[in-house]
Amino acid sequence: MLAFGVFGIGSAGPQPAIAAGGVVDAAGFRATISPGSWISIFGMNLSPGTRSWQAPDFIGDTLPISLDGIAVQVDGYSAAVSFVSPGQINAQVPDGLGPGAVTVQVITPGGPSGLGQVDAEQFAPNFFTFSSGGTSYVAATFADGTIVGKSGLLGAGVPTRAAKPGDVISLWGTGFGPTTPSVPAGILFSGAAPLSASGQIGIAFGNIPAVVQFAGLSEAGLYQFNVVVPEVPDGDQPITAQIGGVPTQQPVYLTIQQ
Is the pTM of this model over 0.85? Predict the structure, then answer.
């Protein structure tokens, strides 16, 4: 998706600045990204306000490329923007980038930032996580939408329950690479687009491989993995995955309770 735009020419407000090393994937916060993945940009004066995209921001099935005049360009290509705040922006990497270093720029009514830089590769897999007590837990759900986790993981108002061997649960991530059929970046998507490299995906609980029933995109930039929990002991089990020989972030865990 090739889309150029000029935004915010002028000097209305403070100049935005991307922090050193401030461009990372939005799940594992690692300094490698991939086409179609979600990224987070950290810095100062990135936006005068804080908000996520809303229905009026969309044009047909096209994701918004600016929110309140805040835009992101990756190697000169306009990126879809889902969230803006003074210190953080979340955006989707356009298609066709990498391998190698790419530039990232935030453009605001106060003017453009300097260029940030990050490595772009075909695979930059990471799981989304929750943090509790200093431990990172994989974002996982049961078929009914209940979050997988020990009781009280996300506070009294959010129901959670541990998984047990034999359960089928969904893990969520970004950066796992191309799908068949292809799903273009910057476009609304809801469905099931399996990974082109499905045969290369491996997910394990501890040292025990899990059966992967589905691996692919279910929403724009959001990968879903339906897995059968293997026979593993109770407690917080480390979850690992790799695709194309590239591993996810470590350490991340999931709570098992038989």
Answer: yes
